[in-house]
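Lab notebook, entry 309. We have the chain sequence and a SMILES string for manganese (II) ion, and the next step in the workflow is to get a structural model of the bound complex before anyone spends time on docking refinements. Request logged below.

Task: model protein plus manganese (II) ion, output structure tokens.
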Amino acid sequence: VSCHINADGDAIGSLLAMGSILKRLKKKYWMVIHDNPPNPKFKFLKDFDKILNYQEDGARNWNFDSAVILDTADLDRLGDVKKLLKREEKMPILNVDHHISNTNFGTINLVGQKASSTCELIYLITKNIENFKIDKSLAYQIYTGIIYDTGRFSFSNTTTKSMEICAEMLKKGVDCHEVSKHIYFEKSFESIQLLGLGLKSMELYLNGKVGLIAFEKRRLSKNQNSVIDLDSLVNYATAVKGVEVGILLREEEKGRFRVSLRSKDRVDVNKIAKVFNGGGHFKAAGCYIKGNLKETINQLLRELQRVVK
Ligand SMILES: [Mn+2]
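Result returned:
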């Protein structure tokens, strides 16, 4: 069982939730992901400590005959875990995801593009297993993914269904404040400092319709570079009045930027990300671009000026 690199709340939530389901069905399984370590803010979820990572455990003798891939638009997004899939032996793959850019790489594809999150699809899976009851720890896992991907019920992917499922999870014993506390109110000092640095560096382009925050590797301390918890920062760029597309650039290795794109309403950022071999959703997508900061910004603006008018 695996999910995409830089695993977020929905990726980790659905990974652990699928693990819980398989355990209940008395299946033998491993949960293995690319990240080393997995984002520690999700430590409060049950079985988080059972997540293996490829770097540390990659050499072990993996003996499995099928794979379940969660919240992952295409197999390259698995990072190193992709190496474990015996594609040439046509290993069966169950693909559960909600990205519009999903390539249907699975043997079975449960791709629900209208679902708020992969965790919402996991919930639907449990409803199709006879006599399956969601217990408290599974409820936490499902709830976390939905809350995370809907931006706490604020993004346009929020539906009555996502709220209803979360209400049901609360009835199963989830403490909503506890979840918010772990995800949103226990950030490291460095990540809050980085937030300040990022906000200060924000620039507007294309007549104020594009807001951009950038982090160059050489400008950050080693400590700051290791902070992985910057996901929500891009939302500040999008929050500026008049901005239609918010961008966050992080130089992960010298000359290679990880790009997060957010659209306020109109612009399909999945299309922009696709130009650079990335993808995601209409309003939230990502990709990688090679080059220095200036080149990276110029490449993005060249694409954006066609759609941002
Ligand atoms: Mn997701």
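Notes for the group: The first strand starts at residue 2 and ends at 3. Worth checking against the assay data. The pocket of manganese (II) ion is lined by residues 10, 71, 98, 117-118, 149 (CB under 6 Å).
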